[in-house]
Write a structure and sequence with these properties.
This protein has a single domain, classed as TIM Barrel (Alpha-Beta Barrel). The protein is of the alpha/beta class. The chain has ten helices and eight strands. α4 packs across α5 and α6 packs across α8.
Length: about 375
């Protein structure tokens, strides 16, 4: 029992010693905290490279726009401005009573019943008349005494009077002679009024060389018969714009072109273009230059009286596609191009009174007539 008491006393003493030691250590730590400086925070840039950086969430609201400066200096334009707008073309009034003479190469084609006052407003340097009667032709000659007047006899595509190039047994030369006889019925009574007549219209294409030979024979018969038998000037050609390659005119049509008084060609703009003045205009509206050069290169004689652009305009027409002023400027631009080429006598704008489905080409009832008339009036001549 004494031994147990001794053990208990010893154990109690040990516990007391441990409590005293623990309390002393706690007191030392608290004193150290009170006198030590506060720890410095570690900058974010020095964080451990192994730490995973979470991406910043995309904001749900748009960023604030930069405030508009209050400087009086105007902001620069968002696009480079084009050339200054040209002065609008003047719209000419009706000319004074009496004959009208114009010294340009700008003319018009008349394909229906059109009042003479409308044509006088245009002041054409030349006129193409479709199937004119004696009275109408005389009226045009009285109003435009120095104008080149060209006649055209209208027949529909596929008419029996035209060459049937699918028929190899047909005498295409004789067919052209017969067409000249047909035209002469109208042309002879107007011999002193209408200067020349065209043959078939937009019949040949370059897709089939055999057809080119056929149409060349037809045109040869027409030219030789009309000029040789009736002493009436003929206009060879009159094919669609771009239908025949320039070199093929020299290869297949040398005879009718060199024998005819005039060579006609239709001059339209590039398909789907809204202007004649495209970068590739030489291949389209000015294609006549390529044809001329091909003829000269091949040694083909040029027509005695020169080239005629017997139809001109935009490929799909212009009404509803461009405004009157823009179209007028295109026709004036073309006239200015023709002024550079002495072998070209002029152009015939298509047109006044064309039949359906050519309503988009109609210039009647538009300001275009007065604008072109204003241009022609600036180059008026003496009767």
């Amino acid at each position: 029992m004494r031994d147990r008491r001794t053990l208990i006393i010893a154990a109690v003493g040990a516990v007391l010693i441990l409590l005293i030691a623990g309390a002393s250590l706690l007191i030392q730590r608290q004193l150290a905290r009170l006198v030590a400086p506060a720890p410095t925070a570690v900058p974010a840039a020095t964080a451990s490279p192994t730490a995973t950086v979470q991406p910043t969430a995309t904001p749900t609201t748009p960023p604030t726009r930069t405030p508009v400066p209050t400087s009086p200096t105007p902001a620069p334009p968002t696009a480079t401005p084009g050339p200054p707008t040209a002065t609008p073309l003047p719209i000419a009034g009706p000319p004074s009573p009496g004959p009208v003479v114009t010294n340009t190469k700008l003319g018009v084609g008349v394909y229906g019943v059109v009042g003479i006052d409308t044509v006088r407003l245009f002041r054409p340097a030349m006129v193409l008349l479709q199937d004119p009667d004696v009275r109408t032709a005389a009226e045009y000659r009285a109003n435009f005494p120095k104008a080149l007047i060209v006649g055209r006899h209208f027949v529909r595509d596929g008419d029996s009077s035209l060459a049937d190039c699918r028929n190899a047994s047909e005498d295409h030369l004789a067919k052209g002679q017969a067409f000249a006889d047909l035209v002469s019925r109208t042309a002879l009574p107007l011999k002193d009024v209408v200067n020349a007549w065209v043959s078939d219209n937009e019949q040949a294409t370059g897709s089939d060389p055999a057809q080119l030979t056929c149409h060349a024979q037809f045109q040869t018969g027409f030219v030789e018969q009309l000029q040789g038998k009736y002493q009436i000037a003929a206009v060879a050609g009159n094919e669609a714009s771009g239908a025949i390659e320039p070199a093929d005119y020299a290869k297949y049509f040398a005879r009718p072109i060199s024998e005819a008084a005039y060579f006609g060609i239709h001059a339209y703009g590039k398909p789907e273009a809204r202007s004649l003045q495209t970068p590739d205009a030489l291949y389209y509206a000015l294609r006549y230059r390529l044809i001329h050069d091909a003829l000269v290169k091949a040694g083909v004689g040029l027509p005695k009286n020169g080239f005629l652009l017997t139809e001109t305009g935009l490929y799909e027409g212009w009404r509803g596609l461009v405004n009157d002023e823009q179209m007028a400027k295109d026709f004036i631009w073309l006239d200015q191009q023709l002024q550079q080429d002495s072998y070209v006598k002029g152009q015939f704008v298509f047109g006044l009174g064309p039949q359906n489905p050519y309503g988009l080409f109609e210039i009647q009832g538009t300001a275009l007539i007065g604008m072109l008339g204003g241009y022609n009036a600036q180059h008026a001549g003496q009767p």
